[in-house]
């Protein structure tokens, strides 16, 4: 193989290192965004689950899959179903 006098191995390596550092920085930023979105989504799912399946307390029946939730409040019967 004939060596190329215009090829600078050090400059090429530095350029590849710089590109790798930029890619790593973008990856870290995307990961941080994904973690923040995951936390928000987990909070929303937990909140929705608490609304559908409230804690078992006196006067509140747990919602079974495919069933209606019936609450007995102040002597009145109210039905809540999944929408």
From TrEMBL:
It comes from the Bacteria. This is Uncharacterized protein. It comes from Mesorhizobium sangaii.
């Amino acid at each position: 193989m004939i060596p190329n006098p215009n090829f600078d191995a050090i400059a090429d390596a530095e350029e590849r290192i710089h590109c790798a550092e930029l890619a790593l920085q973008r990856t870290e930023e995307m990961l941080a965004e994904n973690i923040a979105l995951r936390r928000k989504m987990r909070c929303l799912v937990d909140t929705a689950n608490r609304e559908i399946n409230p804690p078992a307390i006196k006067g509140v029946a747990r919602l079974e899959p495919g069933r209606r939730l019936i609450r007995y409040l102040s002597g009145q019967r109210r039905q809540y179903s999944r929408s």
